[in-house]
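Shipment paperwork, digital attachment
Item: protein structure file
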Amino acid sequence: MAGRRLIIGDIHASYDKLISVLDKASFTPDDILYSVGDIVDRGDKPVETLDFLMGLENFFPVLGNHDGWLESYLYTGKVDSSWYMHNGGDVTVNAIRKKDRQWQLRLRSWISKFPLIRILDDAIIVHGGIPGEYTEKEIENIVERGRPHPLVRNFTYDDFMDFTDDQEDEDYDYLEQFFWDRDYLYNAMYSAGVKAALLRMRRRIKPMKIDKTIWIGHTPLADCRPVINREYHLVAIDTGSYHGKLTLVDMSSCEYWQS
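Attachment content:
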């Protein structure tokens, strides 16, 4: 018998909170677990978190920017200074360096299979957001095209990577929008009554013409509650696991549990 479809917010190596919220939801191996990305960094148990998730048969994440930084490190052996110094990468890198090469290669292979965007019959899962000018068909085309490995581009890596003609700068620039673009989220939050979102909006965006629900993470929500806006077809579920709560949502009913 098929289980539920569940989706979890940014985990950020918060292993204890991950196990806690799964227990609260009575998670079983029959349930399908989706993720909006950012599995690692900031929290104190990256290896435990990665080992647990790699062991789940029905786990389907998308790539978050922190996962992208990790993938770049695993491909090149070079550490992005911003990631390491200011975004929690130090804990992740120091923990992974203690693991053997076989484990690191298995991790790299696993992360390389994370898509940037995941499209289901009734849902689009992406880490940061969708720039408002994209149509559903254009998003489908991006998914079909795939992504470079690693996706996060740092020009200090050029000496170590064999970039092909298909991996020009523009490939990275437009794809990384799906990590960072928050305008659609802020418009949805403002529409849902969060007045403070107006101050963060760079531009006004109308709701996408789409029949799917857009599930996103990346932006910690101030009151640790998911944002659900049916006008914008959006559910935001990053509730700041490393300093707040980790949120798990039933994708069919929108019932949610928190650590």
